[in-house]
User: Fold this.
Amino acid sequence: MADTTQSRITRAALIQAANVISDMSDLGAIKEAMLEKHLPLIQEAADRGAKVCCLQEIFAGPYFCAEQDKRWYELAEPVPDGPTIKLMQDVAKKHGMVMIVPVYEMEMTGVYYNTAAVIDQHGNYLGKYRKHHLPHCEPGFWEKFYFTPGNLGYPVFDTSFGKIGVYLCYDRHFPEGARELGLNGAEIVFNPSATVAGLSEYLWKLEQPAHAVANQYFIGALNRVGTEAPWNIGEFYGTSYFCDPRGQIIAEGSRDKDEVVIADLDLDMIRQVRNVWQFYRDRRPESYEKIAKL
Assistant:
């Protein structure tokens, strides 16, 4: 009897891009320029067959957390009712592509989040993830000046192309949330980031493949490229990549140029790996007494 089962292969894309404008005086112009830059890159992802596409952390601007200045609050907008998410709903519907869209979210005046919205291939807003772990340190990661810690847990969004979770940049240093995403059913976890050489690069290809192995899902790790004046806190070193549930990197971007990184993710591999390594069966949560204690 012929095997009639079909593999669940999802073609996914990561878009890494440098900031467009060096003049930081006109925030509206910055956002417009970054949106205009990303639209053809999203088109490229769609033309290459991607069914899921993830943009980089705070994609519609520079990584402004390099300084502490209240004027950047003006970039924040509601999610999902702000103009950027509305635009990306139209883009997702046009291309028939699930979109992960990281933006600066305003819940109300004075309450802002580092957020990623998830939109399905029909343009429907599915929900959002708010970054939990916020750095506040040299050489220029002053996120607690701009963001409130996330309060929506670790949601997983059930799409036609897989169950998708989101972790944002600095979150990746914390294995607890990565495990929560696995327990919530994630098959693909995206980590949009803004991280510079000399600080975290030695961890870039250690931590996230380790999360993929420990939790037996795919990861799309995404980093912007270039340097951003006037702060010049370091080189955003790109090298966005996908890794599989065995921790193997299966596609990787360049270090220094705008790029659409594409990979075919065989979601059936998750079952294969979990049938070999029974990490979820053999967990002992009752014995982890200190993890949830403050």
